[in-house]
Design goal:
Blueprint: H1 19-28, H2 31-46, H3 51-56, E1 66-69, H4 87-95, E2 99-102, H5 106-110, E3 123-125, E4 137-139, H6 142-154, E5 158-163, H7 165-171, E6 180-185, H8 200-206, E7 213-217, H9 227-231, E8 237-240, E9 243-246, H10 255-259, E10 265-269, H11 274-283
Antiparallel strand pairs: 1-5, 2-3, 2-4, 3-6, 5-6, 7-10, 8-9
Helix pairs in contact: 4-6, 4-11
């Protein structure tokens, strides 16, 4: 992928372009500058490993951040009536009055990703998303938002529903609890991988696993090939004594399940109400209507 590629101008005529939008649009179009910003944000997140800084760091404060990965692996072991995890996003789209899509993934654009499409950008739900660089984003219908989700899942990208203070700093928007972001993450570029440096107790508060999601390794099937280690962006997997071991840092994205050639890793859903619980949790601190 070429980091210098251009992206279409899709300015919503109903949105007033402000000075901050002009400046940010110029910045975000430049891959090298975006790469530098990502490096800076990564350093800030990683500093959350320090006890005092972790409590004060706006990127790791429990009141300001909440995210959850929604694995797309279709071999999830669950009751056949259980919906697949991306249904969380489907329901949030249905609950939202406003839908916007960024024209490209900032992380893949800045890091010049060669593995996945750059033009599958974040989906923003809620009125606050309309204030995010309107020259580089477009307001869409609910149906178009659903189609965007389907395309991302088809490409194997993992949806992550997020409320992040980092978004407000990046786009210079006030935090009025009026929008959620849905990122479509790849394991090679995603900024969220830096949360692996946050202590597990704090990590569990701001980036928990999906409600009722279990993951395990079948020691009889695992041959210790290490492919799961390579695909884990949280570095939560190691090979010990010839078998894969998954640590508590695992956030349940499901990439390892897809990567394992021996089908030795499995995920299961045990809570039939996980969609309603996850949606209700996000709606408890963000207003989307």
């Amino acid at each position: 992928m070429n980091s210098k590629r251009t992206y279409p101008r899709t300015l919503d005529p109903e949105v007033n372009v402000k000075l901050k939008h002009i400046l940010l649009a110029s910045l975000f179009r430049r891959g090298r500058l975006v790469r530098s910003l990502l490096a800076g944000a990564s350093a800030v997140i990683r500093s959350g490993r320090l006890p005092l800084i972790g409590k004060l760091n706006p990127f790791t404060k429990t009141r300001s951040n909440r995210m959850v990965s929604l694995p797309v692996n279709k071999t999830l072991a669950a009751d056949p009536d259980f919906p697949l995890p991306p249904m969380v996003v489907t329901e949030l789209i249905n609950r939202s009055k406003y839908h916007s899509i960024f024209n490209f993934c900032v992380c893949r654009h800045g890091r010049n990703c060669s593995s996945h499409s750059h033009d599958i950008g974040c989906l923003f739900l809620g009125e606050g998303g309309l204030d995010i660089i309107p020259q580089l984003a477009r307001r869409v219908t609910a149906d178009e938002a659903h189609a965007h989700l389907a395309r991302a899942v088809e490409e194997g990208l993992v949806p992550m529903t997020t409320r992040l203070r980092a978004d407000h700093y990046a786009f210079l928007t006030p935090d009025r609890h009026r929008f959620l972001a849905v990122c479509f993450c790849c394991n090679c570029c995603c900024l969220m991988s830096n949360y692996r440096f946050v202590p597990p107790a704090r990590l569990a508060q701001i980036y928990p696993r999906l409600e009722g999601l279990k993951i395990k390794v079948d020691a009889d099937l695992c041959v210790g090939c290490g492919l799961c280690v390579q695909t884990c962006y949280m570095q939560a997997i190691s090979v010990e004594d010839g078998r894969a071991r998954i640590s508590e840092i695992c956030r349940g994205c499901g990439r390892c399940v897809t990567a394992c050639p021996q089908d030795a890793i499995s995920m299961s859903l045990t809570d039939p109400d996980y969609v309603d619980k996850t949606v209700s949790e996000f709606l408890s601190f963000v207003k989307l209507d």
